[in-house]
Amino acid sequence: MNAVILCAGRGKRLIPLTDYIAKPLLPVNGKPIILHIIENLNAVGIDEFIIVIGYKGKQIRKYLQKHIGEKIGIENIIVRYVKQRNQLGTADALKEAVPFVDDDFIVTASDFIIFENDIKDLISMHFTEKCSATIPLRRLPTGRISEASTVKLDEDNLISRIIEKPSRREIIDNIAACPFYIFNRIVGEYILLVEKSKRGEFEIPSAIQLMIEDNLKIKGLMIR
Fold first, then answer.
1. Which CATH superfamily includes the segment(s) 116-178+185-224?
2. Which of 53, 81, 89, 136 has its CA 20 to 30 A from that of 98?
3. pTM to 2 decimals?
4. What is the pLDDT of residues 158-174, one digit of tens each?
5. What distance in Å separates the CA atoms of residue 202 and residue 47, rounded to the nearest whole number?
6. CATH, domain 1-113, list 3.90.226.10, 2.60.40.1470, 3.90.550.10, 3.40.50.300
C-alpha cells in the first residue's frame, strides 16, 4: 500500500501565509504539516509516497529532498513527484497519481493530520470489510459542515450519500467526511467520470458518490 498526498492547491483560505509558503510546509508544533503526515503514515508501514505538486511545487520538493531524513529519521522511503498543471480540483489531482498507485492506497489532503491509531483502524476496516473506499468521519457543528463533505451514514457504517461543501439545504447530517481516503484502485475509473462541481472543480467526493450509485462498498469510521 502506498500513499498519495495532494499538495498542489493554493491554500486560499490561508492567504497571506500561502503567498510565501506552500500550505504543506506551514508549521504545526514546530514541524511542517507534510512531515507530520509522512511520519504518521510511515508509522503504520507506508514507505512509498506520491506527492502531487502544483502551486509552489519546487519549494515543496526542495524542502522534502533536503530535510525528510533529518527531520523524521526516515531514510528508506520512496518519494515520487507528479504535477497537476492546472488547479482543477482534488479528483483532477488524483488522476495524475493513479498510474503509480498500488491496488489499494491512501489519499490525503496536505493539511489534514490523522493519528496513527486511527489510520490502523481504517486500514483494518478497509481490508476486513473488502471496501472500495474507507473514510474517516467526524461530527462537526452545523455551521462548519458547509466547509467539508456531508455524508449519510446507514447501518453497518455504510455511506449512502456524500456531498462536498453543501449548501444549507443540502446538509444531510452533521457527520463530515475527513479529507483522507483509503481506496481500491477502481476509483481511477470513477475520477474520469466526474463532472465539474458548481465551484468549477473536479472533486473526489463526486467520484465517491458515483461509486455509491454503482453499489460499491463505501464505509465510514468515526474518529476523534
1. Spore Coat Polysaccharide Biosynthesis Protein SpsA; Chain A (3.90.550.10)
2. 136
3. 0.93
4. 999 999 999 888 989 89
5. 28
6. 3.90.550.10
